[in-house]
Amino acid sequence: MSALVYRDFSHITVRVSDLERALRFYRDGLGLRQLFDVRLDGPGLDAVTETKRARGRMVGFLVPGAGKVSIELIHFEHPKLSPPPAGRFTGWGNISLSVADIDATHAECVARGLAPLSPPVEVGGVRMFFLTDPDGARIEIIEFSGGHTTSAAWNGA
Predict the structure, then answer these.
(1) Are strands 95-98 and 33-41 parallel, antiparallel or unpaired?
(2) Pair 54, 35: CB distance under 8 Å
(3) Is residue 138 part of a domain?
(4) Confidence at residue 90, expressed as pLDDT on a 0 to 100 scale
(5) pLDDT at 57
(6) What pLDDT, in 10s, does the model give residues 27-84?
């Protein structure tokens, strides 16, 4: 069996229940730069959602310092998505964004009206804090020592 060959990490897609509220969090709160905003519909979307007449909108943001990695928010007008119960979501644990100064970033998040779940803490030799987006998805803000910017680099890759 041949090995799978990957070219790069592309993006993370986050399904949101209220796109305007999510835009206020990711664009205005976290300060991510918007790359695109597209309407979605048609047979291809019907196929991947396994729904007839699926339609929605996707907005993508560049993750600073991560090459060309993006976070893409997707909102479906059909089929509808209800907000999950508090603290419950599925599919992945968190999105992690690295920063050079965790304390300054925490203070700026508070100043922007975001609600960090705690002050910065040390876990496994790195400092971090978490936020949740409007649908409860966890966003980790992390500072690596030694000038590293990713978990892979910090762990010797």
Answers:
(1) unpaired
(2) no
(3) yes
(4) 45
(5) 93
(6) 999 999 898 898 988 888 777 777 899 898 989 888 887 777 888 898 888 887 666 5
CB-based contacts of 54: which residues, under 8 Å, 6+ apart? 40, 41, 45, 46, 76, 78, 79
Q: How far is CA 55 from CA 42, 43, 74, 149, in A?
A: 8, 10, 10, 37
Considering the domain boundaries, does residue 2 fall inside one? no
**Residues 56 and 106 occupy one common structural domain:** no
The total number of residues shown for the chain amounts to 157
How is residue 1 written in tokens? 């069996």
Average pLDDT, integer, range 109-123: 90
Domain range holding 142?
84-157
CA angle centred on 12, ends 7 and 14, rounded to 5°: 160
Q: Give how many domains the chain has, as a whole number.
A: 2
Q: Check whether residue 116 and residue 126 sit in a common domain.
A: yes
> What distance in Å separates the CA atoms of residue 128 and residue 96, rounded to the nearest whole number?
9
> Is 110 domain-assigned?
yes
Looking at the fold, whether 49 and 104 belong to one and the same domain comes out as no
Mark whether 69 and 106 lie in a shared domain: no
